[in-house]
Write a structure and sequence with these properties.
Strand order of the largest sheet: 1-2-3-4-5-6-7-8
Shape: globular
Number of strands: 8
Mean pLDDT: 79
Distance between the termini: 52 Å
Strand content: 15-25%
Length: 307
């Protein structure tokens, strides 16, 4: 049995977290007693896309890195991960247009080039946040779906609306192999749905509200003593959140236009303040929301610098 198939839910989360480390070529990647393989590629694309390719004799594991953003960001990562990727994706979803940032395309190129290099082994993909988004798009453009043995994606925006019919057909073929984990209290998981209009199978995490940064970093995930993640069936809370987000995506052209004018700081601050107050009412945590406000201040600063 493949090593990746032997991992528990908890071990898969621990493996996904390693994408945030600076893994080195030749480094052996171990999760508990499981030797996943050796790092054979550490990819840093020109557009900021990061991925690590880990291989053993029978399988290849690709870890797509999420955004540094909140705690470890610098002017370059803020520009590449937020201004040029995360925010354009949000705008595209809000206006219902297929605008695909460069990082997503780079992620697809990495997958297909690696599939070509290793034609006779099983592939496993992991990603969190932006890493999940990149992995979703890579899978939607996969040239050899038969080689994909599994994908484990965490807390990423649903990019279904960005996919064309050909890409959706590929995703539908791969759906049984893609596990898409969603915590409804994580504000990053925009566009969640209980329907087939998402990349992969919905894995609805049994979570509770907490500070948003902690929530996004798997804070609400609960595991039993065997390392199995606690999930729940789709319920009224999920359907309510899903309906609310669909309304947002259908009625938010003005919001999208505001985000696109990031250089006008007073508009951004007004937008952030309104959103922050609304979320604060549901998830009160002043310190965390103040930190998020600082993030958007940085975005405005970096936009000026990038110009």
């Amino acid at each position: 049995m493949d090593i990746n198939k032997q991992l528990t839910d908890l071990e898969r989360v621990e493996l996904t977290k390693k994408a945030y480390d600076e893994l080195k070529l030749g480094e052996q990647i171990v999760v508990n007693d499981h030797l996943i393989g050796t790092v054979v590629e550490a990819i840093y694309a020109q557009d900021g896309m990061r991925a690590f390719v880990i291989a053993n004799q029978t399988e290849v594991t690709i870890l797509y890195k999420g955004s540094y953003g909140i705690s470890k960001g610098n002017p370059t990562t803020w520009r590449d991960e937020w201004l040029r990727t995360n925010l354009p994706i949000l705008v595209a979803l809000l206006v219902n247009e297929r605008r695909v940032p460069s990082q997503l395309k780079s992620a697809a190129q990495v997958l297909n080039k690696t599939l070509k290099k290793h034609p006779y082994v099983h592939f496993y993909l992991y990603g969190h946040s932006l890493g999940s988004i990149n992995a979703q798009y890579a899978l939607a453009n996969c040239h050899h779906p038969q080689q994909i043995a599994g994908a484990y994606l965490y807390e990423g925006t649903n990019i279904w609306l960005l996919l064309d019919q050909k890409q959706r057909k590929i995703v539908n073929k791969l759906r049984p192999k893609i596990n898409n984990y969603v915590d409804i209290y994580d504000p990053v998981t925009l566009g969640i749905t209980a329907s087939h209009h998402m990349v992969g199978k919905l894995c609805y995490v049994d979570s509770e509200p907490m500070p948003p940064i902690k929530q996004h970093m798997w804070g609400g995930y609960q595991f039993d003593k065997e390392g199995k993640l606690k999930l729940r069936e789709v319920d009224a809370a999920f359907l309510e959140e899903s309906m609310s987000e669909r309304k947002l995506l259908k009625r938010s052209n003005d919001l999208a236009k505001t985000i696109e004018t990031m250089g006008q700081k007073y508009q951004v601050k007004e937008l952030v303040t309104k959103k922050r107050l609304a979320l604060q009412h549901r998830l009160p945590d002043h310190e965390s929301w103040n930190k998020l406000t600082e993030i958007f201040d940085k975005i405005g600063y970096l936009k000026d610098r990038d110009n």
